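Thread: "does anyone have the structure for this chain?"

Original post by V.I.:
We have the sequence but no experimental structure in hand. Need at least a predicted one for the grant figures.
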Amino acid sequence: MTETNLPGGSAPDTSSLPNEHDALAGEPSEVRRAHAGSAHEDGHGHDHTRSDRADACAPAASARTVAEQLAVILADLKPLVPVRVSLDAARGLVLAEDVLSATDTPPFDNSAMDGYAVIRADLLGASAQNPISLPVVADLAAGTAENPHLMPGQVARIMTGAPIPDGADAVVPIEDTDQGTDRVTIVRAPTAAAHVRRAGEDAHAGDRVLGAGSVLWPTRVAAAASAGTSSVLVHPAPRVAVISTGSELVTPGSPTRRGQIPDSNSFLLAAAVTEAGGVAIRVGAVPDDDDTLRALLTDLAGTVDVIVLSGGVSVGAYDVVKAVLQPLGTVHFGPVKMQPGKPQGFGRWPATENVPGPLIFALPGNPVSAYVSFEVFVRPALRRLLGHPELHRRTITATVADGWNSPPGRAQYMPVIVTHRTDSGTETGTDTDTDGTRDRTHIEVRPASRGGSGSHLVAGLAQATGLAIVSEDTTHVRGGDLITVMLSS
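Reply from O.Q.:
Generated one for you, C-alpha coordinates below.
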Protein backbone atom coordinates (compact mmCIF):
# COMPACT_ATOMS: atom_id res chain seq x y z
CA MET A 1 0.00 0.00 0.00
CA THR A 2 1.45 3.35 -0.96
CA GLU A 3 1.57 6.11 1.60
CA THR A 4 0.43 9.61 0.75
CA ASN A 5 1.30 12.72 2.67
CA LEU A 6 -1.51 14.53 4.36
CA PRO A 7 -2.66 17.48 2.24
CA GLY A 8 -1.14 20.67 3.50
CA GLY A 9 1.77 19.00 5.28
CA SER A 10 5.20 18.13 3.99
CA ALA A 11 6.48 14.60 4.33
CA PRO A 12 7.48 14.15 7.96
CA ASP A 13 11.02 13.36 8.99
CA THR A 14 10.29 10.41 11.23
CA SER A 15 13.90 9.60 12.00
CA SER A 16 13.67 11.49 15.28
CA LEU A 17 10.14 10.41 16.10
CA PRO A 18 9.51 7.56 18.53
CA ASN A 19 7.67 4.60 17.13
CA GLU A 20 4.09 4.14 18.26
CA HIS A 21 5.00 1.84 21.12
CA ASP A 22 7.78 4.10 22.42
CA ALA A 23 5.63 7.21 22.15
CA LEU A 24 2.87 5.56 24.11
CA ALA A 25 4.88 3.58 26.61
CA GLY A 26 5.19 4.33 30.28
CA GLU A 27 8.93 5.06 30.05
CA PRO A 28 9.86 8.65 29.22
CA SER A 29 10.70 9.27 25.58
CA GLU A 30 12.01 12.46 24.05
CA VAL A 31 8.58 13.24 22.72
CA ARG A 32 6.96 12.56 26.08
CA ARG A 33 9.48 14.75 27.88
CA ALA A 34 9.04 17.49 25.31
CA HIS A 35 5.31 17.52 25.84
CA ALA A 36 5.26 17.06 29.58
CA GLY A 37 5.13 20.76 30.31
CA SER A 38 2.77 21.98 27.57
CA ALA A 39 0.28 24.29 29.18
CA HIS A 40 -2.37 25.53 26.75
CA GLU A 41 -4.64 22.98 25.13
CA ASP A 42 -7.94 23.40 23.41
CA GLY A 43 -10.28 22.39 25.96
CA HIS A 44 -12.85 20.49 27.57
CA GLY A 45 -15.96 19.80 25.71
CA HIS A 46 -17.94 22.92 25.26
CA ASP A 47 -16.38 25.72 27.30
CA HIS A 48 -16.12 27.87 24.21
CA THR A 49 -14.52 30.91 25.80
CA ARG A 50 -11.73 29.01 27.51
CA SER A 51 -11.19 26.64 24.61
CA ASP A 52 -11.10 29.27 21.90
CA ARG A 53 -8.64 31.25 23.97
CA ALA A 54 -6.41 28.18 24.25
CA ASP A 55 -6.78 27.34 20.57
CA ALA A 56 -5.66 30.85 19.64
CA CYS A 57 -2.40 30.58 21.61
CA ALA A 58 0.85 30.20 19.71
CA PRO A 59 2.10 26.59 19.48
CA ALA A 60 4.61 25.36 22.02
CA ALA A 61 8.08 24.70 20.66
CA SER A 62 7.57 20.99 21.40
CA ALA A 63 4.31 20.72 19.45
CA ARG A 64 4.16 18.19 16.63
CA THR A 65 3.26 19.11 13.10
CA VAL A 66 0.15 17.56 11.58
CA ALA A 67 2.33 15.27 9.47
CA GLU A 68 4.31 14.14 12.52
CA GLN A 69 1.17 13.40 14.51
CA LEU A 70 -0.31 11.41 11.65
CA ALA A 71 2.93 9.48 11.20
CA VAL A 72 2.80 8.39 14.85
CA ILE A 73 -0.85 7.36 14.50
CA LEU A 74 -0.29 5.29 11.36
CA ALA A 75 2.99 3.72 12.49
CA ASP A 76 2.59 -0.07 12.74
CA LEU A 77 -1.16 0.28 12.19
CA LYS A 78 -2.28 -2.64 10.04
CA PRO A 79 -5.62 -3.72 8.55
CA LEU A 80 -7.82 -5.79 10.83
CA VAL A 81 -7.52 -9.57 10.65
CA PRO A 82 -9.55 -10.78 7.64
CA VAL A 83 -12.87 -12.55 8.02
CA ARG A 84 -15.06 -14.33 5.50
CA VAL A 85 -18.45 -12.75 4.84
CA SER A 86 -21.32 -13.39 2.48
CA LEU A 87 -21.65 -11.17 -0.56
CA ASP A 88 -24.73 -9.64 1.07
CA ALA A 89 -22.50 -8.25 3.83
CA ALA A 90 -19.50 -7.32 1.67
CA ARG A 91 -20.47 -3.93 0.24
CA GLY A 92 -17.89 -1.25 1.02
CA LEU A 93 -15.39 -3.65 2.58
CA VAL A 94 -11.91 -4.33 1.19
CA LEU A 95 -10.82 -7.67 -0.23
CA ALA A 96 -8.04 -9.46 1.64
CA GLU A 97 -7.44 -11.96 -1.17
CA ASP A 98 -7.92 -12.24 -4.92
CA VAL A 99 -11.26 -13.43 -6.27
CA LEU A 100 -10.78 -16.05 -9.01
CA SER A 101 -13.44 -17.09 -11.45
CA ALA A 102 -14.80 -20.54 -10.60
CA THR A 103 -16.03 -21.09 -14.17
CA ASP A 104 -15.95 -19.47 -17.55
CA THR A 105 -18.02 -16.28 -17.54
CA PRO A 106 -20.42 -16.56 -19.20
CA PRO A 107 -20.37 -20.36 -18.86
CA PHE A 108 -21.96 -20.94 -22.29
CA ASP A 109 -22.56 -19.11 -25.55
CA ASN A 110 -25.69 -16.98 -25.07
CA SER A 111 -27.75 -14.33 -26.78
CA ALA A 112 -27.08 -10.64 -26.19
CA MET A 113 -30.47 -9.67 -27.67
CA ASP A 114 -34.09 -10.72 -27.85
CA GLY A 115 -34.53 -12.10 -31.36
CA TYR A 116 -33.94 -15.27 -33.36
CA ALA A 117 -31.01 -17.69 -33.32
CA VAL A 118 -30.16 -18.41 -36.95
CA ILE A 119 -27.70 -20.06 -39.30
CA ARG A 120 -26.08 -17.08 -40.99
CA ALA A 121 -25.68 -18.83 -44.34
CA ASP A 122 -29.49 -19.07 -44.61
CA LEU A 123 -29.84 -15.28 -44.61
CA LEU A 124 -27.17 -14.05 -47.01
CA GLY A 125 -28.67 -11.24 -49.06
CA ALA A 126 -31.69 -10.68 -46.79
CA SER A 127 -32.95 -7.08 -46.90
CA ALA A 128 -36.13 -5.05 -46.80
CA GLN A 129 -36.36 -5.47 -50.57
CA ASN A 130 -35.48 -9.16 -50.34
CA PRO A 131 -36.97 -10.51 -47.06
CA ILE A 132 -36.42 -14.15 -46.16
CA SER A 133 -39.04 -16.22 -44.30
CA LEU A 134 -38.02 -19.25 -42.21
CA PRO A 135 -39.83 -21.64 -39.82
CA VAL A 136 -39.47 -21.19 -36.04
CA VAL A 137 -38.75 -24.60 -34.49
CA ALA A 138 -38.06 -23.65 -30.84
CA ASP A 139 -38.71 -20.94 -28.27
CA LEU A 140 -35.76 -20.44 -25.90
CA ALA A 141 -36.12 -18.38 -22.69
CA ALA A 142 -33.31 -17.34 -20.38
CA GLY A 143 -32.58 -20.16 -17.94
CA THR A 144 -33.76 -22.96 -20.22
CA ALA A 145 -31.75 -26.17 -20.44
CA GLU A 146 -33.33 -27.01 -23.80
CA ASN A 147 -30.82 -27.35 -26.64
CA PRO A 148 -32.44 -28.03 -30.01
CA HIS A 149 -30.12 -28.62 -32.95
CA LEU A 150 -30.95 -26.24 -35.78
CA MET A 151 -30.93 -27.67 -39.26
CA PRO A 152 -30.33 -25.46 -42.33
CA GLY A 153 -33.41 -23.34 -43.00
CA GLN A 154 -34.56 -23.35 -39.34
CA VAL A 155 -34.51 -20.64 -36.64
CA ALA A 156 -35.28 -20.53 -32.92
CA ARG A 157 -36.86 -17.61 -31.12
CA ILE A 158 -34.48 -16.63 -28.31
CA MET A 159 -34.45 -14.27 -25.32
CA THR A 160 -31.51 -12.32 -23.95
CA GLY A 161 -29.26 -14.63 -21.89
CA ALA A 162 -30.63 -17.88 -23.29
CA PRO A 163 -28.08 -20.45 -24.52
CA ILE A 164 -27.34 -20.41 -28.25
CA PRO A 165 -28.70 -23.69 -29.70
CA ASP A 166 -26.39 -26.10 -31.49
CA GLY A 167 -26.07 -25.26 -35.15
CA ALA A 168 -26.83 -21.54 -34.76
CA ASP A 169 -24.04 -19.04 -35.33
CA ALA A 170 -25.74 -15.63 -35.07
CA VAL A 171 -28.73 -13.82 -33.59
CA VAL A 172 -31.06 -11.53 -35.52
CA PRO A 173 -32.54 -8.81 -33.27
CA ILE A 174 -36.31 -8.78 -33.03
CA GLU A 175 -36.31 -5.29 -34.60
CA ASP A 176 -35.11 -6.82 -37.91
CA THR A 177 -38.08 -9.23 -38.12
CA ASP A 178 -41.87 -9.32 -38.24
CA GLN A 179 -41.78 -11.05 -34.81
CA GLY A 180 -43.47 -14.18 -36.11
CA THR A 181 -43.95 -17.21 -33.86
CA ASP A 182 -44.49 -20.06 -36.37
CA ARG A 183 -42.59 -18.46 -39.22
CA VAL A 184 -40.54 -15.30 -39.12
CA THR A 185 -39.67 -12.86 -41.88
CA ILE A 186 -36.17 -11.36 -41.61
CA VAL A 187 -35.26 -8.14 -43.41
CA ARG A 188 -31.54 -7.80 -42.62
CA ALA A 189 -28.71 -10.31 -42.92
CA PRO A 190 -26.70 -10.73 -39.70
CA THR A 191 -22.95 -10.32 -39.51
CA ALA A 192 -20.75 -13.19 -38.35
CA ALA A 193 -21.48 -14.16 -34.70
CA ALA A 194 -23.81 -11.17 -34.42
CA HIS A 195 -25.16 -10.66 -30.87
CA VAL A 196 -23.59 -13.88 -29.57
CA ARG A 197 -21.77 -13.66 -26.22
CA ARG A 198 -19.13 -16.37 -26.23
CA ALA A 199 -18.39 -18.62 -23.25
CA GLY A 200 -15.47 -17.17 -21.29
CA GLU A 201 -15.78 -13.80 -23.00
CA ASP A 202 -15.67 -11.98 -19.63
CA ALA A 203 -13.37 -14.40 -17.78
CA HIS A 204 -12.04 -17.93 -17.98
CA ALA A 205 -12.01 -20.35 -15.07
CA GLY A 206 -9.10 -19.41 -12.79
CA ASP A 207 -8.84 -15.83 -14.05
CA ARG A 208 -8.40 -13.12 -11.41
CA VAL A 209 -11.63 -11.14 -11.40
CA LEU A 210 -10.83 -8.86 -8.45
CA GLY A 211 -7.52 -8.22 -6.71
CA ALA A 212 -6.77 -8.06 -3.00
CA GLY A 213 -7.19 -4.47 -1.87
CA SER A 214 -10.21 -3.85 -4.09
CA VAL A 215 -13.04 -1.95 -2.45
CA LEU A 216 -16.26 -3.90 -2.90
CA TRP A 217 -18.61 -1.37 -4.44
CA PRO A 218 -21.87 -2.75 -5.91
CA THR A 219 -20.37 -3.44 -9.34
CA ARG A 220 -17.52 -5.40 -7.76
CA VAL A 221 -19.90 -7.39 -5.58
CA ALA A 222 -21.68 -8.29 -8.82
CA ALA A 223 -18.37 -9.29 -10.41
CA ALA A 224 -17.62 -11.61 -7.49
CA ALA A 225 -21.06 -13.17 -7.80
CA SER A 226 -20.61 -13.61 -11.56
CA ALA A 227 -17.33 -15.37 -10.85
CA GLY A 228 -19.26 -18.02 -8.94
CA THR A 229 -18.34 -17.11 -5.37
CA SER A 230 -20.85 -16.68 -2.56
CA SER A 231 -18.46 -15.33 0.09
CA VAL A 232 -15.28 -13.27 0.17
CA LEU A 233 -12.36 -12.76 2.56
CA VAL A 234 -12.34 -9.12 3.66
CA HIS A 235 -10.98 -6.83 6.34
CA PRO A 236 -13.92 -6.20 8.67
CA ALA A 237 -15.24 -2.75 9.42
CA PRO A 238 -13.73 -1.47 12.68
CA ARG A 239 -16.14 -1.19 15.58
CA VAL A 240 -15.85 2.33 16.97
CA ALA A 241 -17.28 3.55 20.28
CA VAL A 242 -18.05 7.29 20.32
CA ILE A 243 -18.23 9.16 23.63
CA SER A 244 -18.84 12.82 24.43
CA THR A 245 -17.70 14.01 27.85
CA GLY A 246 -19.09 16.86 29.90
CA SER A 247 -21.60 17.26 32.72
CA GLU A 248 -23.17 20.09 30.73
CA LEU A 249 -24.30 17.75 27.94
CA VAL A 250 -27.85 16.44 27.62
CA THR A 251 -29.60 14.31 25.03
CA PRO A 252 -30.91 16.46 22.15
CA GLY A 253 -34.60 17.21 22.64
CA SER A 254 -34.42 16.94 26.41
CA PRO A 255 -35.27 19.95 28.59
CA THR A 256 -32.23 22.02 29.49
CA ARG A 257 -31.48 24.22 32.47
CA ARG A 258 -28.99 27.04 32.67
CA GLY A 259 -25.51 25.73 31.89
CA GLN A 260 -26.67 22.73 29.84
CA ILE A 261 -26.44 22.22 26.08
CA PRO A 262 -27.39 19.38 23.70
CA ASP A 263 -24.76 16.78 22.95
CA SER A 264 -23.98 17.18 19.26
CA ASN A 265 -20.48 15.73 19.12
CA SER A 266 -21.45 12.10 19.62
CA PHE A 267 -23.87 12.36 16.70
CA LEU A 268 -21.32 14.19 14.57
CA LEU A 269 -18.55 11.70 15.20
CA ALA A 270 -20.75 8.60 14.95
CA ALA A 271 -21.99 9.77 11.55
CA ALA A 272 -18.41 10.46 10.48
CA VAL A 273 -17.35 6.96 11.57
CA THR A 274 -20.14 5.40 9.50
CA GLU A 275 -19.30 7.54 6.49
CA ALA A 276 -15.65 6.48 6.75
CA GLY A 277 -16.68 2.81 6.66
CA GLY A 278 -16.66 1.93 10.35
CA VAL A 279 -19.40 0.55 12.59
CA ALA A 280 -20.33 3.35 14.99
CA ILE A 281 -21.43 2.56 18.53
CA ARG A 282 -22.67 5.88 19.84
CA VAL A 283 -22.41 5.74 23.62
CA GLY A 284 -23.47 9.37 23.98
CA ALA A 285 -22.51 11.79 26.74
CA VAL A 286 -20.93 10.92 30.09
CA PRO A 287 -20.46 13.32 33.02
CA ASP A 288 -17.17 14.74 34.26
CA ASP A 289 -16.53 11.92 36.70
CA ASP A 290 -13.31 9.92 36.63
CA ASP A 291 -14.78 6.71 38.01
CA THR A 292 -17.73 6.73 35.62
CA LEU A 293 -15.53 7.21 32.57
CA ARG A 294 -12.94 4.69 33.74
CA ALA A 295 -15.60 2.01 34.27
CA LEU A 296 -17.16 2.73 30.87
CA LEU A 297 -13.83 2.48 29.05
CA THR A 298 -12.98 -0.75 30.88
CA ASP A 299 -16.28 -2.29 29.77
CA LEU A 300 -15.83 -1.14 26.17
CA ALA A 301 -12.20 -2.21 25.84
CA GLY A 302 -12.90 -5.83 24.99
CA THR A 303 -15.73 -5.15 22.56
CA VAL A 304 -14.47 -2.48 20.13
CA ASP A 305 -11.46 -1.75 17.94
CA VAL A 306 -11.40 2.02 18.46
CA ILE A 307 -12.68 4.48 21.06
CA VAL A 308 -13.19 8.12 20.05
CA LEU A 309 -13.74 10.63 22.85
CA SER A 310 -14.41 14.34 22.58
CA GLY A 311 -13.78 16.89 25.31
CA GLY A 312 -11.73 16.81 28.47
CA VAL A 313 -8.28 16.86 26.84
CA SER A 314 -6.97 20.19 28.17
CA VAL A 315 -5.62 21.24 31.56
CA GLY A 316 -8.83 22.35 33.22
CA ALA A 317 -10.05 21.13 36.58
CA TYR A 318 -12.77 19.01 34.97
CA ASP A 319 -10.86 17.61 32.00
CA VAL A 320 -11.76 14.04 32.83
CA VAL A 321 -10.44 12.29 29.71
CA LYS A 322 -6.88 13.36 30.30
CA ALA A 323 -7.19 12.65 34.02
CA VAL A 324 -8.30 9.06 33.36
CA LEU A 325 -6.10 8.16 30.41
CA GLN A 326 -2.78 9.88 31.00
CA PRO A 327 -1.87 7.82 34.10
CA LEU A 328 -2.20 4.63 32.04
CA GLY A 329 1.06 5.47 30.26
CA THR A 330 -0.28 4.22 26.92
CA VAL A 331 -2.01 7.38 25.71
CA HIS A 332 0.02 10.43 24.72
CA PHE A 333 -1.40 13.94 25.09
CA GLY A 334 0.21 16.95 23.49
CA PRO A 335 -0.28 19.95 21.23
CA VAL A 336 -0.32 19.77 17.45
CA LYS A 337 0.49 22.75 15.25
CA MET A 338 -2.97 23.14 13.80
CA GLN A 339 -6.10 25.25 14.14
CA PRO A 340 -8.63 24.20 15.16
CA GLY A 341 -7.70 21.07 17.10
CA LYS A 342 -4.46 21.95 18.86
CA PRO A 343 -4.80 19.53 21.84
CA GLN A 344 -4.77 15.86 20.83
CA GLY A 345 -4.58 12.54 22.61
CA PHE A 346 -3.76 9.22 20.96
CA GLY A 347 -2.77 5.75 22.08
CA ARG A 348 -4.23 2.42 23.14
CA TRP A 349 -6.08 1.05 26.10
CA PRO A 350 -3.68 -1.28 27.95
CA ALA A 351 -3.36 -4.79 26.57
CA THR A 352 -5.13 -7.67 28.30
CA GLU A 353 -3.53 -11.14 28.20
CA ASN A 354 -1.27 -10.00 25.35
CA VAL A 355 -4.27 -8.84 23.32
CA PRO A 356 -3.81 -5.18 22.30
CA GLY A 357 -6.44 -2.82 23.61
CA PRO A 358 -8.49 -0.62 21.30
CA LEU A 359 -7.03 2.49 19.74
CA ILE A 360 -7.97 5.64 21.62
CA PHE A 361 -8.42 9.06 20.07
CA ALA A 362 -9.03 11.91 22.51
CA LEU A 363 -10.26 14.91 20.53
CA PRO A 364 -11.06 18.48 21.56
CA GLY A 365 -14.63 19.09 22.63
CA ASN A 366 -15.48 22.06 20.46
CA PRO A 367 -17.50 20.71 17.53
CA VAL A 368 -15.44 22.18 14.69
CA SER A 369 -12.23 21.12 16.45
CA ALA A 370 -13.62 17.61 16.88
CA TYR A 371 -14.69 17.40 13.24
CA VAL A 372 -11.38 18.66 11.86
CA SER A 373 -9.45 16.33 14.18
CA PHE A 374 -11.54 13.40 13.01
CA GLU A 375 -10.98 14.18 9.33
CA VAL A 376 -7.25 14.73 9.71
CA PHE A 377 -6.35 11.94 12.14
CA VAL A 378 -9.17 9.47 12.88
CA ARG A 379 -10.51 8.92 9.38
CA PRO A 380 -7.13 7.90 7.90
CA ALA A 381 -6.63 5.46 10.79
CA LEU A 382 -10.05 3.87 10.24
CA ARG A 383 -9.31 3.55 6.53
CA ARG A 384 -6.02 1.83 7.35
CA LEU A 385 -7.84 -0.65 9.63
CA LEU A 386 -10.24 -1.31 6.76
CA GLY A 387 -7.32 -2.02 4.42
CA HIS A 388 -8.56 0.80 2.21
CA PRO A 389 -6.13 1.92 -0.52
CA GLU A 390 -7.13 5.58 -0.12
CA LEU A 391 -6.60 6.96 3.37
CA HIS A 392 -7.27 10.63 2.72
CA ARG A 393 -10.02 12.74 1.22
CA ARG A 394 -9.70 14.01 -2.33
CA THR A 395 -8.17 17.47 -2.62
CA ILE A 396 -8.57 20.18 -5.24
CA THR A 397 -7.01 23.57 -5.91
CA ALA A 398 -9.45 26.48 -5.70
CA THR A 399 -9.40 30.26 -5.82
CA VAL A 400 -10.13 32.19 -2.63
CA ALA A 401 -13.14 34.48 -3.02
CA ASP A 402 -13.09 36.12 0.42
CA GLY A 403 -9.88 36.19 2.43
CA TRP A 404 -9.26 35.50 6.12
CA ASN A 405 -6.45 35.40 8.67
CA SER A 406 -4.57 32.34 9.88
CA PRO A 407 -2.52 31.91 13.08
CA PRO A 408 1.27 31.91 12.67
CA GLY A 409 3.10 28.63 13.06
CA ARG A 410 -0.01 26.46 12.72
CA ALA A 411 -1.65 24.69 9.80
CA GLN A 412 -5.21 25.96 9.59
CA TYR A 413 -8.20 23.92 8.43
CA MET A 414 -10.89 26.43 7.51
CA PRO A 415 -14.40 25.09 6.81
CA VAL A 416 -15.32 26.53 3.42
CA ILE A 417 -18.10 26.50 0.87
CA VAL A 418 -16.90 25.35 -2.55
CA THR A 419 -18.61 27.06 -5.48
CA HIS A 420 -18.29 26.42 -9.21
CA ARG A 421 -18.61 29.79 -10.95
CA THR A 422 -18.58 30.50 -14.68
CA ASP A 423 -16.88 33.37 -16.50
CA SER A 424 -20.25 35.11 -16.67
CA GLY A 425 -20.67 34.89 -12.90
CA THR A 426 -23.25 32.10 -12.81
CA GLU A 427 -22.94 29.52 -10.03
CA THR A 428 -23.05 26.01 -11.44
CA GLY A 429 -21.86 22.50 -10.75
CA THR A 430 -20.60 21.91 -14.31
CA ASP A 431 -19.42 23.70 -17.42
CA THR A 432 -22.24 25.44 -19.27
CA ASP A 433 -22.70 26.03 -22.98
CA THR A 434 -24.62 29.19 -23.84
CA ASP A 435 -25.29 30.24 -27.44
CA GLY A 436 -22.79 27.69 -28.69
CA THR A 437 -19.86 28.97 -26.62
CA ARG A 438 -18.52 27.08 -23.63
CA ASP A 439 -18.48 29.10 -20.42
CA ARG A 440 -15.40 28.11 -18.40
CA THR A 441 -15.94 27.13 -14.78
CA HIS A 442 -13.76 28.32 -11.90
CA ILE A 443 -13.74 26.75 -8.44
CA GLU A 444 -14.00 29.31 -5.65
CA VAL A 445 -14.06 28.98 -1.88
CA ARG A 446 -15.16 31.25 0.93
CA PRO A 447 -15.37 30.66 4.70
CA ALA A 448 -18.51 28.78 5.68
CA SER A 449 -19.10 30.98 8.72
CA ARG A 450 -19.20 34.75 8.85
CA GLY A 451 -18.23 34.56 12.50
CA GLY A 452 -14.60 33.78 11.76
CA SER A 453 -12.71 30.59 12.46
CA GLY A 454 -13.91 29.87 15.99
CA SER A 455 -13.93 26.19 16.83
CA HIS A 456 -17.48 26.29 18.21
CA LEU A 457 -19.23 27.63 15.07
CA VAL A 458 -21.41 24.61 14.31
CA ALA A 459 -23.91 26.38 12.04
CA GLY A 460 -21.16 27.36 9.62
CA LEU A 461 -19.73 23.85 9.69
CA ALA A 462 -23.08 22.48 8.53
CA GLN A 463 -22.79 24.58 5.36
CA ALA A 464 -19.18 23.63 4.62
CA THR A 465 -18.33 21.39 1.69
CA GLY A 466 -14.60 21.27 2.31
CA LEU A 467 -11.67 22.27 4.49
CA ALA A 468 -9.24 24.83 3.08
CA ILE A 469 -5.71 23.97 4.22
CA VAL A 470 -3.50 26.93 5.10
CA SER A 471 0.21 26.27 5.64
CA GLU A 472 1.98 27.06 8.91
CA ASP A 473 3.91 29.98 7.41
CA THR A 474 0.84 31.81 6.06
CA THR A 475 -0.92 34.39 8.23
CA HIS A 476 -3.14 36.09 5.65
CA VAL A 477 -5.22 34.35 3.00
CA ARG A 478 -6.20 36.90 0.37
CA GLY A 479 -8.88 36.94 -2.28
CA GLY A 480 -7.48 35.56 -5.52
CA ASP A 481 -5.00 33.23 -3.78
CA LEU A 482 -4.91 29.59 -4.85
CA ILE A 483 -5.48 27.18 -1.99
CA THR A 484 -5.70 23.42 -1.41
CA VAL A 485 -9.14 22.21 -0.32
CA MET A 486 -9.93 18.83 1.22
CA LEU A 487 -13.40 17.97 -0.04
CA SER A 488 -15.97 16.69 2.44
CA SER A 489 -17.25 13.97 0.12
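V.I.: this helps a lot. The longest strand covers residues 411-422.
O.Q.: and Confidence is low (pLDDT under 50) at residues 1-54, 429-437.
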